[in-house]
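Hey, can you fold this one?
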Amino acid sequence: MKRLIIILLSTFLFLGNASAEETCKFEKVGGKYNHIDNIKYSSDGEDFTFRGSEGKEVFVIKNGKEIFKGYGRINNFWYSKDGKHSAFVIYKSGIQTTISDGEKVGKNYRTVGDFQYSPDNKSSAFKVKTKDGKSFIVKDGKEIGKEFDEIGGFEYSPDGKSFTFIGIKEGKNFNNKYFIIKDGKEIGKEYDKVLEVEYSPDGKSVAFIAEKDGKEFLVKDGKVIGNKYDSIYSFKYSPNGKSIAFWGKENGEEFIVKDGKETKYDYIYSFEYSPDSKSLILLVKGDKAFIVKDEKVIGNKYDDIYISKHSSDGKSFAFVAEENGKRFLVKDEKEIGKEFDYIYDFEYSPDGKSFAFLAEENGKKFLVKDGKVIGDKYDYAYNIKYSPDGKSFAFLAKKDGKKFLVKDEKVVGDKYDDVYNFKYSLDSQSFVFIAKKDGKVFVVKDDKKIGKEYDNVSRLEYSSDGQSFAFIAEKDGKVFVVKATCLNNQKTIKEKINNKVKSDLSLKSKKILMKQLMISKIKLKKSNSKYLSNLNKINKVISKLKKEKLETLYLRIQKVKSKNLGKYEDIVNYLQAKVGLEIYKREAKQ
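Sure. Predicted structure:
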């Protein structure tokens, strides 16, 4: 019994003695190479992959192990959306071979291109060309569909259940014929040209620009939308996939066509849907520049308009306007703040409640947040970023020949000869950047220099859980990858554990846990379990544990329960119920 308790407790008891200071463990991942690139974490932060080369030999390294080793030249490198799978094409002696997760996919071909993993990470496909010049698609290792002289525009649907490409048959005097192939079958007709094949965001529709007899038109799900034009420049689906619009030109006049309805404008510059799909926004530039929203001019007309952006929730829209040589921000049809010589790096916070930009006046740069000038003035400022949770913002700046990071209006850490590759962790708990000082390059995390000094550092990447980051380092002519695993401060760890426990207990009421406790105790008595006599000891240990240790123990039990417990099932169920009820008891006292 004592051994079982130790197994369940030991993993987490260290938290009670953990230092509040953050520590990072650095390790070299893989070997030393002449060249390294394409560092990639999986979306869950568990896997970590990159590629390297040494002379004519190439390597792919995953979690510190070489999963591929061979000779040739790696032409391309791709990752699945979740980062769990990687693929590349290796070129050797005039042939190209596709390698996915260290294994050869399909045959050898003259050329391989446009490798894609499906958005659901369950499938992969790429286009190939054979020695006799024929092209086709290889999907999940199998050659499928018809052969064509060329293939273009290959794309999976957003849900990964469908795929489409353009098939081209060459004719005399460049009179080629174009076909749309969806899931191996032709859709629509034969065309003189096809451009811009795209699925709707919901994956239910596919559209493309086609040309026939000198006229261009939009085809959606096999049907022509609107009229035919001399030219169609581009088309866009709304984010919800329910609307489609395109920009066309006929006899020198320009039109926006939304869901088949045509509206004429002079000198269209760009158009976009709002993130909530409710509005279509146009930037029109002629003698004056102005914004059109749902066919109505909003705000004033200006000499020019530059940056335009929606907040992520679609509720706010802003742009930079110029009048009489001065620039200013227009937000939700109102001119915000004062005028400046220049405005750049405009950003909304992720929640859309705040905005900031960098401005210049009389050669000095500074930050403007929510319409107010804040902080110092700098010789140069760039790369403004909000943290993912929107609670913090930072940018890089230069003054008196030194560069540094400004975060929440304060200079962070030291000043350096150079600063670059600044990134927040995805959980917003920390940030890192690369700094150079006195000829040495190193990493700064939060406000402290950490790790060793190198001749060069690049390609810094964070894991999704914020617990580790990696970068390419160079020293003494050799290149290698360094991975840093950092323990966040105690408060952050406790919060994460507390949230996980709350999430699980929200599905288990006190009544359910009490029933589980009673049933498991009865079963232990019936089986005359050797653990029965130790229940009082277990209860005493549990009652003395601090709340955070109870929570970590609860999560440990959850992990144990996912396995085949056999004769241990009843005692583990008892432990889970007892710990869960004790957590409920502590919560009630707070």
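The mean pLDDT is 86. Let me know if you want another pass with a different chain boundary.
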